[in-house]
Amino acid sequence: MIQMTNYTGEGAYIVISLLNPEGEYVETLNVIGDDDEWYNTVESWWDFYGKKRNDIDAITGATVSGGERTINVIEIDNDKLDKGYKLRFETAVEDQDYYESDVEFELTSETIKSKVEGQGFIRYIRMMPQ
Q1: Nearest to 118 by CA among 95, 89, 87
Q2: Sorted alphabetically, which InterPro entries does this protein's record hold (predicted)?
Q3: Is beta strand 25-32 parallel, antiparallel or unpaired with respect to 60-61?
Q4: E runs forming strands in the chain
Q5: Helix, strand, or coil here: 122?
Q6: Cα-atom radius of gyration of the chain, to the nearest Å?
Q7: CA 39 – CA 130 distance, rounded (Å)
Q8: pLDDT digit string (tens) for 42-52?
Q9: Does the predicted model carry a pTM greater than 0.70?
Q10: 26: phi > 0 → left, psi -120 to 50 → alpha, else beta; which?
């Protein structure tokens, strides 16, 4: 679950990515915001995605505005746990700021059951393993 701060303005674009232990993008897990005209505002991810342009239609959804929350299902292979891989939540809002690591944490057996505070538009995320 992603809980947003009470900011004003347009809905946030949020990209959830899997990073390897070296901090490099491995995979795009979810994109919240389905108007590809604005994808380049999520700058670091765009440097990765924009080169490959993989089909992400199945993992996109509407933006989330200030004060709202959203629940998204992301699939993470168990072999990524406790191996140094990280989840990164990048956020951007039109005519406002961009946060490369609004939320970023290492994937461990403990963190996938936790609540992690955001640094920008995200108040917090809460992981709920299935």
Answers
A1: 89
A2: DUF2271
A3: parallel
A4: 2-4, 12-19, 25-32, 60-61, 69-70, 86-93, 98-106, 115-117, 122-126
A5: strand
A6: 14
A7: 29
A8: 999 988 887 66
A9: yes
A10: alpha
